[in-house]
Amino acid sequence: MLKDFFLMLSDFIVKNPLIWICCLASFVLSSVFIPIIIKLCKKHGWYDSVNARKVHKGNIPRLGSMGFVPAFTIMMAVYVLIVRDSSKTMIPFVIAGFVIFVFGIIDDFLDLRAIVKLFIQIIAALIVLIGGFRFKQFYIWTIPAPLGYLITFCWIIGIINAYNLIDGVDGLCGGLSAITLLALGIIYSRSVTDTAAACFILIAAICGFLLYNKPKAKIFMGDGGSQFLGFMIAALPLYQTTATFETNKFFIVINLVSIPLIDCIAAIWRRIRDHRGIMSPDRSHLHHKLMNMGCSVGQILLILLGLQSVICIMCGIAMALKGTAALVLLICTFAGVNVFFCAIHYANRAVIQKQKVLEEK
C-alpha cells in the first residue's frame, strides 16, 4: 500500500515540473512581498487591533494576506495561461476568492459589521454554486441537487468563518491550512492535476508568509488571509475526482477541517448559551484554553499541527482502505477529535476552578 502510494506520488512529481516551478516562484514572491508589506504597515500605522479574543501585545501589522494571496494568484495565473484547459473550471473560484480577499482587506481597515461580512460570504458562495460546484454524493447515496446546493452553501460560509476564528495564535491558521492543503493536493494528484496544482502553489505562498508569522510573529494575515484560506479549503474539495474519494469525500473533508470546525461550532453554542451575539469575541477558543492551561505558543502549535497531521494521515489511510472500513476509520477519527476537544474543555475548567479557589484563599 505504501509502495503504491510513493510510486504514484513520485510519478506525479516527475511528470509535472511546471507545478514545482510555480511553487518555487510562489514561495519566493510571498517571502519577498511580506517584508514590503511589513514596512508599509509600520510606516502608515496599519496594526492589528486588540480585543477580548486577541492574545498578542504591541503593534503587529495585520495585512500579511496582501503578500501571500497575490503571490499565489500571480503564479496560479501563470499556470492557467500555460495549461489552458484549466482556465474555465477555475473562473468561479478565482472570482469568488477575489471577492472574499478584497472585502477581507477592507474589513481589516474598517472593521465591517458582521452582517456585511456575512453578505459578502453569501455572494462568494453563490458564485461557486452558480458555477455548478456542489456536494453530489454522501457515501453511496446520491444527494438531490437542491439539497446538495444547500449543504454546499452552508459548508462554504461555515468553513470561511471557522478559519477566521481559529486565527488566534502565531502560525496556527497558516500551519493548519498548509497541512490540510497538502492532504488535498496529494488526493487530487491522483486524478485532477489542476486542482492539485492550486493546492501546492497555495501551500508555497503560505510557507513564504509563515517565515514571518512564526512565533514571535512579525505580521498577521488578517481577516483577508484567514477568510481567503477558509474559502479555498472549502471550495477546492468541490472538484470531482476519483470514485474512491467521492464515496467518502464528505467524511474526509469534515475530518480535514475538524479542528477549526469544532472550535467554531463550540464558539457559536457558547455565545448562544450566554445570550451574546454569535460574532462577539471571547477568550474561550481551543488555543485560549491551551494557553490558560500553561501551554506556550510553540507548544500549542506542536499539539494542534501534530493533531492535524494525524488527521490527514488517517484520511490517507481511509483513501487506501475504501468502502465500509474507510467510513468506520473516518467516523472514529472525527470522534477522536471531539474527545480531544472535550478533554481540553474539562481540563481548562479544572484549571479555572483551581484558580478561583486560590483567589478566594
Notable characteristics:
single chain; about 350 residues; mainly alpha; two-stranded antiparallel ribbon; 2 strands
Layout of helices and strands:
Blueprint: H1 2-15, H2 17-44, H3 65-82, H4 87-110, H5 114-130, E1 137-138, E2 141-142, H6 145-166, H7 172-188, H8 193-213, H9 222-235, H10 243-256, H11 258-273, H12 286-292, H13 297-321, H14 323-360
Antiparallel strand pairs: 1-2
Helix pairs in contact: 2-3, 2-8, 3-4, 3-8, 3-9, 4-5, 4-9, 5-6, 6-9, 6-11, 7-8, 7-9, 7-13, 10-13, 10-14, 11-14, 12-14, 13-14
Mean pLDDT: 90
How far the N terminus sits from the C terminus, by CA atoms, comes to 60 Å
Structural class: mainly alpha
Gyration radius (Cα, Å) is: 20 Å
Main beta sheet: 2 strands, antiparallel
Shape: globular
Binding site for Mg(2+): 164, 223
Subcellular location: Cell membrane
Transmembrane segments: 18-41, 62-83, 89-106, 118-135, 147-165, 172-189, 195-212, 219-238, 250-269, 290-319, 325-347
InterPro entries: Glycosyl_transferase_4, PNAcMuramoyl-5peptid_Trfase_CS
